[in-house]
Write a structure and sequence with these properties.
By secondary structure, this protein is mainly alpha-helical. It contains 48 helices and seven strands. The strands form two sheets. Strands 2-3-4-1-5 form a five-stranded parallel sheet, sandwiched between helices. A two-stranded antiparallel sheet has the order 6-7.
Length: 928
């Protein structure tokens, strides 16, 4: 089929290169394109070249009806390892699912041989396969594994398109779209098939095919008068077959695998002549090793689409009977799902219900939770009251709740909620109502429907019997979790305490852990930090023992909050990193709380002045975020402080989704950054309005005591806008902030800013603020306070010693700003010193100049270091430098350290200035 490889002179070498480099590095690639573009031929041809090379190749493919069959795209060789789980015990469903992911990944990475996993037609894949492929592409071993996927670029389900979009954003993944052939390439392709083909014929073919390689071949071998689309052309081929032979062709797309001869005979109702007719037509290819399949997947689709409804039902009924008769004692979930799907499509209610239940239970045992949830959902929809005659059959709502629980555990919250919305009725007496209400309440909370969640919990509370402590504990803890995000501290504490008491009586360890974690968060808000630490640690320990991702994420969030209030930045970072790693072990997709953990880490690093460390943190730890990044607001604060307004504004795009009135803390975070943006843009009235709006919302809530940073920004905006009324309003709204965390520093800032708005700046207030900020380990705020103190002292220059004290404060502020790389603050300090004719210690700058006089800095830098320096000057972080120059962030950091040493500078800002002076800012980024 060399004729179909024409026009792939760029793509084939890419695949060959990735395979050749497997000894050094792993890779993932998605080969995309329309039907007939040559995806299958390309990947199979390149892999066939590896025969005898020692490269292991696992081949799998998905089919149109694969979506309900777990791991259908991987092939039996890979999935056989899951049978080892039969007698395994896991602390949670998430731990079991993580085991299955690791087990399958282990099959592919034996640590010795280079391996290629080929999965074709991933657009049809089931969710267990999709989850595994996403996991593999984001967590590739360092070397020896190539994940090779093909995807048809045509209309598919929206959630699968979302999956593709997320995978394509995976760092390092190779996106390999295949284009149509040019007219010249079409000529070469067709001349290879028919050397005597005329130019006129080739022009006609190209005019009808538009360069689709498969359609080119079909047209040149057939009738040029048939319709031009691939589907229409294949339909014309099918019309030449008998109805039974067409059913055989359609059957090749009805299972999630290649068919054997017996499958084809069953599809043909034992008409062997029809099977031969389909194969002899070339539309069905028989392979003694691989099995029988349509010559092209579109052929099977077209054949199936042309069947009448009754013909489809009959086909599925024959296949269902045939497949069910072949099932033995030791059967996998995928085999049972095959039968269930055939009976479902045959509209055989009784058989479909029984097999759906079997498929659900089998998939659950193999930890394929999305597929298990699907089949429980199918069983729920088919359920009839008469089914209860069988003691093994659960009630309808029990099935629906189990389906929703499994789907939610697989990250499909919206689908799970829709299922329960359709299943739950107003009849409280129906068996399973209580559990279904609790599950739906949780799902509504996850989708920000607080009113609906509370209504479900209140209804569930009425249904719980007085002595059922376990269920009462679950109701109360769910209530507490709903309230926690909406600043209802007193109600949260009451519900969490009740949950703890009932759970303790029932011995419900999970609810005990959840309640203690929640009580820790409440204690932190109330300023009882020792108690908060004790409860948060206890809650986290239980969550880790149980390996429940939801509990683990929430407990870690509470503990990082407590550590932050204790000014223990190292512990905030350590907990965030450790728990995110554990969550990545337990989950395929990012848990939404991971964004908060990362945000807490970045913000505490920002407060501590460890800005480079904050900017260097990985964006997603190898996974894609589930939505706008919480930490972007905090990163924007650093970029603002370093003078990169454009980058800060870019990071804030999309953050407005957090500026909602029912989430005061999120709105405060948004207002803090956006108010600073407005101040930098010299729009203080807008900045003040943002802070006042947030203050009105946070007033007299649990968020008010923690609004110190926002208060400082708002006061600065009020002074800049000369709004005395706004100033007084802010102080009144944030009175608890001044008496809460960092009370001494905030009280001094209020006094200092009040003196400024009155036109009589008070150095004593600012000196107190500087000392308080220093004791809290917040260097940026300390430097700003020292600058304000120097301004006030210089305004009192007639007082003895004022000028000398101002000089000392400016020098200390300058050193801090220089170490932080806070260029705007540094410029303000230097501007004040120049106006006041105050001499600051510029020894660092003088050192650069003396060094430059004796040696050419460019000659000291290697070519690679000059590339890195140019990117430093462009404001890139070490991670961004690494991504641009194809090196690790750690290597980039080492280069930066060497550059600073060679240039004789102390900060990235000074290095950037040197780059400008040496005209190195335009160095090509793409050079490697």
């Amino acid at each position: 089929m060399a004729d179909l490889m024409v026009g792939r002179g760029d793509e084939a070498p890419v695949l060959r290169g990735l395979i050749a480099d497997l000894a050094e590095r792993s890779a993932a690639v998605v080969v995309r394109g329309e039907a007939g573009i040559g995806k299958t031929l390309l990947v199979r041809r390149v892999l066939d070249e590896q025969a005898g090379s020692g490269v292991r190749i696992f081949r799998g493919a998905c089919a149109p009806m694969s979506s309900a069959t777990a791991y259908s795209g991987l092939g039996a060789t890979v999935t056989a390892a899951l049978s080892q789980s039969a007698n395994s015990q896991f602390p949670s469903a998430a731990a079991a699912r993580a085991w299955s992911m690791q087990t399958l990944a282990g099959v592919l990475d034996d640590g010795k041989r280079s391996t290629v996993l080929l999965v074709e037609d991933v657009h049809w894949a089931d969710w267990s396969t999709l989850d595994l492929l996403a996991h593999l592409t984001r967590n590739l071993p360092e070397r020896r594994l190539l994940v090779l996927l093909t995807w048809r670029d045509e209309t598919v389900e929206p959630d699968r398109l979302t999956w593709l979009g997320e995978v394509l954003r995976t760092p390092g993944l190779v996106d390999l779209p295949l284009r149509r052939l040019t007219e010249q390439e079409t000529l070469r392709q067709l001349r290879a098939l028919q050397p005597n083909c005329t130019a006129e014929t080739i022009a006609t073919v190209y005019g009808r095919s538009a360069g689709n390689p498969y359609l080119n071949v079909e047209l040149i071998r057939g009738d040029l008068t048939v319709p031009a689309s691939l589907r229409q052309l294949l339909l014309a081929r099918l019309q030449a077959l008998s109805p039974t032979a067409r059913a055989v062709v359609a059957a090749t797309g009805s299972l999630a695998r290649a068919l054997d001869d017996d499958d084809l005979l069953a599809a043909a109702d034992s008409a062997a002549d029809a099977v031969r007719e389909a194969c002899e037509s070339g539309l069905v290819i028989r392979d003694s090793e691989v099995g029988c399949a349509a010559r092209h997947p579109v052929i099977a689709e077209v054949a199936y689409d042309q069947l009448l409804s009754s013909e489809r039902r009959d086909l599925h009924a024959r296949l269902a009977k045939h497949l069910s008769e072949r099932i033995g004692g030791d059967t996998t979930a995928s085999v049972i799902a095959e039968v269930a799907e055939q009976y479902r499509r045959a509209n055989d209610r009784d058989a479909a219900f029984s097999w759906a239940l079997m498929a659900a239970r089998a998939a659950e045992k193999e930890y394929a939770f999305a597929e298990a949830g699907h089949w429980f959902s199918v069983a729920s929809s088919l359920w009839r009251p008469s089914d209860l005659a069988d003691d093994r059959v659960p009630p309808r709502l029990v099935l629906a709740e189990r389906a929703a629980s499994l789907l939610s555990g697989a990250g499909r919250h919206v689908e799970a909620l829709a299922l329960l919305d359709a299943a739950v009725t107003d009849r409280d007496t129906e068996v399973g109502t209580l559990a279904a209400l609790l599950m739906r309440g949780t799902l509504r909370g996850l989708t920000d429907d607080l009113a609906g969640a509370m209504a479900d919990l209140q209804r569930a509370r009425r249904l719980v019997s007085a002595g059922d402590d376990r269920t009462l504990g679950q109701v109360y803890i769910s209530h507490a979790m709903m309230l926690r995000g909406y600043a209802h501290t007193a109600e949260t504490a009451e519900a969490a305490q009740a949950a703890l008491e009932h759970a303790t009586k029932a011995g419900d360890t999970r609810t005990i852990g959840q309640a203690r974690s929640m009580l820790g968060a409440v204690a932190a808000i109330e300023g009882r930090l020792d108690k908060a630490f004790e409860e948060a640690v206890a809650g986290l320990k239980i969550a880790r023992d149980l390996a429940e991702p939801e509990d683990l994420a929430m407990a870690a969030m509470h503990l990082t909050f407590v550590h932050g209030l204790r000014n223990d930045t190292d512990q905030v970072v350590a907990v965030a990193d450790t728990i995110q790693s554990e969550l990545r072990h337990l989950m395929v997709n990012e848990h939404w709380v991971e964004g908060i953990l990362e945000s807490n880490a970045v913000y505490n690093l920002y407060l501590a002045g460890r800005w480079d460390e904050a900017l260097d943190r990985d964006d997603n730890k190898g996974r894609l975020p589930s939505g706008p990044a919480f930490k972007d607001s905090q990163l924007a604060l650093i970029h603002l402080a370093r003078g990169n307004l454009q980058k800060a504004v870019e990071l804030m795009h999309g953050q407005e989704v957090f500026a909602v009135d029912d989430q005061p803390q999120d709105k405060s975070d948004y207002a803090e950054t956006m108010a600073l943006v407005r101040l930098v843009q010299h729009r203080p009235r807008e900045a003040l309005a943002l802070v006042l709006d947030s203050a009105e919302l946070s007033h007299d809530t649990e968020d008010e005591p923690m609004a110190g940073s926002l208060l400082c920004i708002g006061l600065e905006a009020a002074v800049a806008a000369q709004s005395a009324d706004g100033f007084d309003r802010l102080v009144a709204l944030y009175r608890r902030a001044v008496s809460g965390f960092a009370a001494g520093a905030l009280a001094a800032v209020v006094d200092g800013e009040r003196s400024r708005i009155r036109g009589t700046p008070d150095p004593a207030a600012w000196l107190t603020a500087a000392q308080e900020w220093a004791s809290l380990g917040r260097p940026y705020w300390e430097a700003q306070a020292r600058l304000r103190a120097a301004e006030a002292l210089l305004a009192q220059r007639r007082q003895t010693g004022a000028r000398g004290r101002a000089t000392a404060e400016l020098e200390t502020a300058r050193q801090i700003a220089d170490q932080l790389g806070a260029e705007p603050l540094l410029s303000r300090i230097q501007a004040l010193a120049k106006i006041a004719r105050v001499h600051l210690d510029d020894s660092a700058t003088e050192h650069h100049e003396r060094r430059g006089a004796t040696a050419d800095p460019q000659s000291l830098l290697t070519e690679r270091e000059r590339q890195v320096l140019a990117l430093v000057a462009a404001g890139r972080t070490n991670r961004e430098i690494g991504a641009t120059l194809y090196m690790s962030p750690k290597t980039a950091s080492v280069h930066v350290t060497h550059i600073l040493e060679k240039l004789g500078v102390q900060s990235r800002v000074q290095a950037a200035a040197e780059a400008v002076r040496l005209d190195l800012t335009d160095h090509p980024e793409s050079s490697t």
